[in-house]
Amino acid sequence: MRIEQIRLKNFKVFQDVVLKDLQPFTVFVGANGSGKSTLFDVFGFLRDCLRDNVRSALAKRGGFREVVTRGHLDETIEIELKIRMPLKIGDRSSDRTVTYQIEIGSTKGEVRVAKEDLRYTRFGGGQPFHFIRFENGVGEAIQNETDIVDRGQSANRQPQRLDSPDILAIKGLGQFQRFEAASALRALIENWHVSDFHIDAARTVQDAGFADHLSTQGENLPLVTRFLYENHRPIFDEILRAMEERVPGVTSVQADETTDGRIVLRFTDGSFKDPFIARYVSDGTIKMFAYLVLLHDPKAHPLLCVEEPENQLYPDLLGNLAEEFAAYSRKGGQVFVSTHSPDFLNDVDLDSIFWLRKQGGTTTVHRARDNERLKAFVAAGDHPGYLWRQGAFEGLAPSG
Length: 400
Known about the structure:
This protein is α+β, with helices and mostly antiparallel strands. 30% of the residues lie in helices and 33% in strands.
């Protein structure tokens, strides 16, 4: 999967922006308050809309009035994604560019999905078909998706009505395999990982249980460690080898069960006889281990969003971490990272860098490779992080 383009209108500081040609590994830089967290929250917002409904997703963020761009309360919030994704339609399978668009409005305090549209072209090309098209909870969905895409037959459009206008159509229709694109898109969004990692949460002692994926805050790290050790030993050993390279001295990591039935992480330093439990290990060690666990997940997330991974990490580790993220993206997952670190940015290709600039209350987004001056500097041997530190990114300073 790859999100190729994002269009946002009236989503907080993004009054009207288009991000094009997003890379498998994309890094966003910008001053504090420029919208990096808001950009990542777009994905969390869509996931929350799908898990529950649009009203509750807005409520978590203060309501429609707090999410819509200031001064545009009478307009709709618009989100449009162009996603390159594998689709299996009938007997054929290939990568397709699926466009998914929603518009959200509010009238007298009543939130509604004013428009929802899912479209893509059939295998022979041509104009995209609108396989799902709804307005205010009422619309239509094509029932014979396989016949249209695979066999070129005419569309059989059936009217549909949702239980409430604040529910996404792909939430319901995506549960049925005959709506192939909606089902695939729903599965993608449900598996996006928008990290909100907390060091203190990852240090906690967990009640014995089961967890096969790292949570967004990382509190289940001991359980996931135990799962990997018991069920995916080669992957666990690979994580441990990476830890030994990244954090000198760490020779083993264990997830042990205590006498009262809880799971605790223990890190062994080759210089000491006894292991240290997680609460006594440095923040950087815990964070690097958690990132490695996330990046070596046996069932990789289609999208990772990670904010400022450099916090608590020694600067010399940041180049290695950037390579870990890039390697994850090369295996098929997409990675979006925001950073304030020139050291991290030095190990990122110019093609993968976007910078956010806030002016007059709204944010614009710029692609680094479109700046001829930056391209010339990098072609001459300069590194993006050093250029950032020197002020070559217009309107952006690393201390912001």
